[in-house]
Amino acid sequence: MFETLKKATLDKIFVLMAEYAADPRTDKIDLGVGVYKDDTGLTPIMNSVRKAEQRIHDTAMTKTYMGVVGNKGFSAAVVDLALGGIVDLKRVRTVNGAGGTGALSILMNVLSRARPGGRIFISDPSWPNHWPMAELVGLKPHYYPYFDPRTRRVDFPAMMKMIDSLTTDDIVLLHGCCHNPTGANLAREQWDQVAECLRRTGAFPLVDLAYLGFGDGLEEDAYGVRKVVSSVPESMVAFSASKNFGLYRERAGVAIAIGKNETDAEIVSSQMQNVIRATISQTPDHGAEIVRVILEDRELRAEWQAELTAMRERMKRLRVKLAEAIRQRSNSKDFDFIAEHSGMFSLLGLPPAVVERLKVKDGVYMINDSRINVAGIPEDRVGELADYLLAAVR
Ligand SMILES: Cc1ncc(COP(=O)(O)O)c(C=O)c1O
Q: What is the 246 CA–ligand 1 centroid distance (Å)?
């Protein structure tokens, strides 16, 4: 049986993580893996999460099945958080997904049933899992231009030119905020134009919302998704609680479908449930219940928001410090984009050979496309990191 298979390529991030772990140098710097880290290099459990977990531990009476749609309180709280009441809830249906990936997978499966072999347009570049996920469900992935490696900003005219040429049979996957891997994001006026273009062409938006609150704030980061969802008759949103609640391994996410009307919403809901039933039957609930408890409790919610704000501000501070350190040393503004990007990542635009040299010579690890996780920048070694980067590009 297995001899008929070819070895599959694994996501490069896991290879890099293994290399980092095996590197004996004590001063190595990990800018690779895409998880938030505090200034001790730890991916912490948030206090609000600990408290919610304790509460669940003390009060839960059963671990029986939740049902195929999952934790409804979690989904409702997430819809409110992400969409903020901009759409009539009669048109909205949700199921829990195993993390943002699980939510995306459910939504893509349903989309491939609606448009068998249909085209899905993904930003160039994108989170490396978007493409294989689309292929796995039988959609045909294509890129739309997104990042200009010269300016390290969004190539908006090129992006719009492509999106404007799409039809009602096409799907457009948009990063709701904090673009991964580039860190370059659409401005509000650009979101307005994208939403208007989707309304006009009828191309279907699937919004991946994996970093709400990591960019400029919970409300600020929701601008794009709200604009798109309120501008078009039908859309989908995949929400992840992995990053903003630090719940990575708990696999908490919500698949949100917004139909033209209640009848369509019911149909899409039955399809989402059918996909879940035939794949994992029920979604894990522990993380979902933690988020529900936090969002439904005024005090815990305030504590979570304060913790999220602290994480976001730390990442912003590190961005500014690194950009300033490079500017001071090089007397050039070439790396100022690091401070202008938002979210957890920046794509530095370095060639693979330079990325390799940084790893081998200096023990600075980043993804080979030169994506850095800004949360991994050691605050007390920003100057040293600036020196390494400048020496590598000279
Ligand atoms: C853009 C993007 N979408 C979705 C996800 C899915 O996250 P998870 O499945 O861990 O919730 C990630 C995680 O890295 C991501 O970066």
A: 12
